[in-house]
Amino acid sequence: MLRHIPNVLTILRMLLTVPLAWMLRNGRYDAALLLALVAGASDALDGYLAKRFNWQSWLGGVLDPIADKLMLMICYICLAMAGALPPWLAWLVVGRDLVIVAGAVAYHNLVGPLTASPTTISKATTCLQIGLVLATLLHLSRFAEWPDWINATLFAIVAVATVASGLDYVLRWSIKAWRETHTKNGAASP
């Protein structure tokens, strides 16, 4: 029974996207910042528990990245709609994730089972994307104020990392798919 705690935390984090979206759409940035921090803490806790007590599961391996991406997508879309983030940046972040998912589905259907783990650049990009959301919420909640050029710099850093990470995934998995199909075709020929 206890071994399901990480999955329960992940599902609860997914459910937090609803009140988070509502808070962002209604300009309740103080509460949204607090909720985003709670979601981040639950993500860290479920990961710690899963690894520490060997409570990892296939379901958790699938749900955890979905919960993370869902939270990020909601934040980027809502913050762009509120005018706090440029729409092009929200499209870039969401588009990268959609390309990765489409590529994973295509790989699975055309090549074979997919066992992927995030790359270093992907992890760094996700950290930068989360950092931008938290910095934006902090700025909007008026806990911290800084000049606009800092926001523009943060937008540029996240954009470059997002493009680099997306290209890394596309190139890495295209090469892997090419090798797999050529290995299968080479083994099948007489």
Looking at this protein, list some descriptive labels.
membrane; Four Helix Bundle (Hemerythrin (Met), subunit A); mainly alpha; 81% helix; 190 residues; globular; single chain
Quick structural overview:
Helices cover 81% and strands 0% of the residues. It is mainly alpha-helical and 190 residues long.
Describe the protein in words:
There is one protein chain. With 190 residues, the protein is mainly alpha-helical. The chain has one domain (2-188): Up-down Bundle (Four Helix Bundle (Hemerythrin (Met), subunit A)). It has 7 helices and no strands. Helix 4 (58-81) runs antiparallel to helix 5 (87-110) and helix 5 runs parallel beside helix 7 (148-188). The longest helix is centred in the last third of the chain and has 41 residues, at 148-188.
- Main sheet record: none
Structural class: mainly alpha
Characterize the overall form.
globular
Euclidean distance between termini CA atoms = 53 Å
How many domains make up the 3D coordinates?
1
Q: Would you report the number of β strands?
A: 0
CATH architecture: Up-down Bundle
Give me the Rg, rounded.
Answer: 19 Å
Q: Percent of residues in helical segments?
A: over 70%
Poorly predicted regions are: none
Strand content: under 5%
CATH class: Mainly Alpha
Tell me the number of helical segments per DSSP (H or I, 4 or more residues long). 7
What is the residue-averaged pLDDT?
91
- So, the CATH homologous superfamily? CDP-alcohol phosphotransferase transmembrane (TM) domain
Which sequence of SSEs, written as H and E, runs from N to C?
HHHHHHH
CATH topology: Four Helix Bundle (Hemerythrin (Met), subunit A)
Family: Belongs to the CDP-alcohol phosphatidyltransferase class-I family.
Pfam families: CDP-OH_P_transf
EC number: 2.7.8.5
Keywords: Lipid biosynthesis, Lipid metabolism, Membrane, Phospholipid biosynthesis, Phospholipid metabolism, Transferase, Transmembrane, Transmembrane helix
